UniProtKB/TrEMBL annotation:
This protein's UniProt keywords: Membrane, Transmembrane, Transmembrane helix
CDD domains in UniProt: YdcF-like
Cross-referenced InterPro entries: Cell_Envelope_Assoc (IPR051599), DUF218 (IPR003848), Rossmann-like_a/b/a_fold (IPR014729)
Keyword Membrane: yes
Ranges for domain DUF218: 41-198
Organism of this sequence: Alloalcanivorax balearicus MACL04
Protein known as: DUF218 domain-containing protein
Amino acid sequence: MDEVMILGMVALVMAGATLPAVVALFYPPVPPRRGSSPPRAVVVLGAGRRRDGDGYRLNTLGLKRLRVALELARERQLPLLLCGGAPGAEPLLAEQSEAALMAEVVRRAWPDAPLMLEAESRNTWENAVMAARVLRLRGIESLVLVTDQAHLCRATLCFQAQRLEVTPHAVISLPRRPWMPSAGALSQMPLIWREWLALIWYHCKYPL
């Protein structure tokens, strides 16, 4: 294979990676819903924190997930479970957890929101394990799970492993025009490959 052909193939792959319709094909497939009970809560997973002076704030992706979950919870009149700990922080600094930061945002938009917080988890598996405990204390076994499209497969598998009925709900990150080249579509590719690697790791480490 000569150099020109190799360069042509690379260019073709790169061009395809800018098209939302092509990028969408690479997302890990979301497992089908198990069970038929109507959801009784909306669960949203944190996506990380950023330093903000002496404290923290939610990152852009986390805010996007939260807005979608908040809209769903208000529309369906369901309680909202906010998931996310404070990796690397002292255990007593619960106010720095992602769940606490999300709660501040929710209360500004919906002061009477029926909130539950899970503020100890450090990864997606722990999100699911600890969220299941919080939900079962309230007799809840079915939920709508909100996270971004790339992460939804792994998150759903983790929650289903806790014997919960999960209705997956993706936060869409791809541009709306499927065949219009977009930097936004290209930016999804590293996240997608990371998720495929994470799925392999989780299948080896956890009982999915």
